Q: What sequence folds into this?
């Protein structure tokens, strides 16, 4: 999940899409890669995070050190939030989380220093592959084979942490508001992802392939418009103009599903650690929109339900 523009509902979308997928019987892992840590705080209180998670149990500790993952296993950071899993009730689904940390904002500089710490071309290419492929390699551990779906919530930038997420991902989903600033950088984002993919794959080919690195095959699943304004059951004309422009001019496909703006549902990050779509008591318009989005996304990933993987 990524967009260069913040405030587009990315974390809300990640938390609720993950929760809906889990309610359908899927085993879901969420990884919070945004230093704002809002996805983490959607499932754990700040006090709980301060008391038992922040010092030794976040993705920041995993990225630190001589090379990410060398000092701590990613599997050791997996948390199972109690309230949301209790809310899943009798389903066979499960939702786990790897927490972020406010200090993750400094990790890009540390990773950049690691990337520049080689003196020969071959060593430099090896370091590039090892560093950019670190998260992908970690997620290939047998521990993560238990999950049907892993959602990575990225920061609104294209730093090295975000690049490790792109390398690790099979698909990129772009939440966006239907306005000028949110849609402005879509093709720039595509271009940067294509450039990263090309460079990574060129280095893999140059080395003749290896057991640890394979070419990147990730692709854009599409743009999903969030915080949409609805009037008389229609998207407002001003926002529809931006949606149409993305349809016509962007290289990123646009999903049919849209999520309307609703402070009633999304006014907080998650009351008691349970996303809004699991707290909803009736099938109102927003709940139906999220169901439709889940149908579209999970269908594209061939993940219809927990019984049909």
A:
């Amino acid at each position: 999940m990524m967009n260069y523009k913040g405030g587009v509902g990315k974390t809300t979308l990640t938390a609720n899409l993950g929760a809906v997928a889990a309610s359908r019987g899927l085993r879901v892992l969420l990884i919070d890669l945004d230093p704002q840590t809002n996805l983490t705080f959607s499932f754990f209180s700040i006090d709980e995070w301060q008391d038992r998670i922040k010092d030794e149990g976040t993705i920041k500790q995993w990225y630190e050190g001589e090379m990410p993952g060398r000092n701590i296993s990613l599997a050791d950071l997996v948390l199972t939030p109690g309230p949301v899993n209790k809310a899943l009730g009798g389903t066979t689904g499960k939702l786990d989380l790897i927490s972020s940390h406010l200090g993750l904002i400094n990790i890009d500089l540390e990773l950049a220093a690691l990337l520049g710490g080689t003196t020969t071309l071959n060593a430099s290419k090896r370091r590039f592959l090892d560093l950019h492929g670190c998260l992908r390699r970690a997620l290939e551990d047998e521990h993560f084979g238990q999950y049907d779906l892993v959602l990575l919530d990225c920061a609104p930038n294209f730093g090295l942490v975000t690049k490790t997420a792109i390398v690790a991902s099979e698909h990129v989903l772009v939440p966006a508001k239907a306005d000028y600033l949110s849609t402005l950088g879509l093709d720039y984002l595509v271009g940067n992802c294509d450039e990263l993919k090309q460079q990574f794959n060129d280095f893999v080919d140059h080395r003749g392939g290896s057991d640890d690195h394979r070419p990147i095959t990730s692709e854009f699943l599409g743009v999903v418009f969030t915080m949409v304004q609805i009037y008389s059951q229609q998207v407002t004309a001003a926002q529809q103009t931006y949606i149409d422009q993305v349809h016509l001019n962007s290289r990123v496909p646009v999903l049919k599903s849209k999520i309307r703006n609703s402070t009633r549902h999304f006014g907080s990050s998650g009351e008691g650690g349970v996303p809004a779509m699991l707290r909803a008591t009736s099938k109102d318009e927003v709940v139906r929109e999220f169901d439709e989005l889940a149908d579209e996304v999970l269908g594209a990933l061939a993940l219809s339900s927990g019984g049909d993987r």
Summary: The mean pLDDT is 90. The domain at 10-300 is CATH 3.40.50.300 (Rossmann fold). Residues 186-206 form the longest helix (21 residues).
